[in-house]
TrEMBL record:
Transmembrane domains' residue ranges: 20-41
Chain positions covered by the region annotation Disordered: 49-68
Leader peptide range in chain numbering: none
Name of the molecule in the record: Lipoprotein LpqB beta-propeller domain-containing protein
Keyword terms: Membrane, Transmembrane, Transmembrane helix
Alphabetical list of InterPro entries matching this protein: Quino_amine_DH_bsu, WD40, WD40/YVTN_repeat-like_dom_sf
């Protein structure tokens, strides 16, 4: 992996380590400006005549189309085996600044956009998971990382664990396991509140995403009974304002098509986007929750093995797809090498 340093910087001392960064020019996102044509009027008399009969300018001015959110430039990834975080430029595929080392005795597990331009990363040691907040400089270089108070989960974090942070950064959801049974914890660091929903069924709980107070996830039954019954993966939603208890209170909103294993809920909660593998290609497809039918194909890429993860943290209309082939796929940008990353977010 390309990097700008020979070794990681410890997270708690990251702020002081900034002094070792080499000064560089601040990178700016390219912006597209559309210049409108300006009619030239050659005769003054003609202008006066038009002004007498013209409608008010406000009535003639066309409505502007809503501006699209700019494509994020950087992704932050958890470098295998969890010993560091790296920032990667999606335009060049190269790392930016120094890697950020995991806290002593811990390994980074998952990362997600954390609201306010920050990232939240989960770090595990034994049966305890803590959370750190990472901030970047404007040029993408890591600026500082600090522990999030009142954010601790007890449980075993595995390769199947998952993380999602609400768009406003107020709630953190994390999945741990006790044996083969999953558990979902929802934390509110500002108040110290924690809610837990558990399951006794053998299944993987993955692809966490938020729509308001609703947390969605992909439920993938496993074990002999599930295989015998040919259980189908499904997207389920959990109203996190409910009292904690059993995951049975969650609702099934969509059955995923064959081969699909990851999905995200739209911010308005009306649709689900998933990767549908077909031969050597994978199509990013949106389904209506109301009808269960596909509504739109976003793109099709040559991705062998489908998708491992989808991330909507870059904002509405911007999805980051982590392919099973070890590359990150972004509409409107070249694929980004990511075989060295266990997880990534933007």
């Amino acid at each position: 992996m390309d990097g700008n340093s020979t070794g990681p910087v410890q997270g708690p001392r990251l702020h002081s380590a900034r002094r070792t960064f080499l000064p560089v020019g601040v990178a700016a996102l390219a912006a597209l400006a559309v210049a409108g044509g300006l009619d030239v009027v050659h005769h003054h008399e003609r202008v006066v005549a038009k002004e007498r009969t013209a409608k008010p300018a406000s009535a003639k001015t066309p409505k502007k189309k809503p501006a699209q959110t700019a494509l994020p430039r950087y992704v932050v990834g958890v470098r295998r085996p969890g010993n560091a975080l790296v920032v990667r430029d999606i335009r060049t595929g190269k790392d930016v600044g120094l890697p950020v080392a995991a806290p002593p005795g811990q390994l980074f597990q998952r990362i997600a956009r954390g609201g306010g331009g920050t990232y939240v990363v989960a770090a595990a040691a034994g049966k305890k998971v803590t959370f750190q907040r990472l901030r970047l400089e404007k040029d993408g270089r890591p600026k500082e990382m600090a522990p999030i108070p009142n954010a601790v989960v007890s449980g075993v974090s595995t390769a199947a664990s998952d993380l999602a942070v609400s768009p406003d950064g107020t709630h953190i959801a994390y999945v741990t396991y006790r044996g083969t049974a999953g558990r979902v914890d929802v934390l509110t660091p500002a108040s110290g509140e924690r809610k837990t929903w558990t399951s006794r069924t053998t299944a993987r709980i993955s692809s966490l995403s938020w729509a308001g107070d609703t947390l969605s996830f992909v439920w993938s039954p496993s074990g002999r009974k599930a295989k015998a019954a040919k259980a189908v993966r499904q997207v389920r939603t959990l109203d996190t304002t409910l009292a904690p208890g059993s995951l049975r209170v969650s609702k099934s909103v969509l059955r995923l098509p064959a081969g699909s294993g990851t999905a995200v809920l739209s911010p308005d909660g009306r649709s689900v986007t998933t990767g549908v593998p077909e031969r050597s290609e994978t199509t990013l497809r949106t389904y209506s929750i109301e009808t269960g039918k596909p509504t739109k194909d976003l793109w099709t890429q040559e991705v062998q093995g489908g998708l491992r993860r989808l991330d909507i943290g870059g904002g509405p209309g911007h999805l980051l797809a982590y392919g099973a082939d070890g590359r990150l796929y972004i509409q409107g940008a070249p694929a980004v090498p990511a075989a060295d990353l266990a997880d990534a977010a933007w």
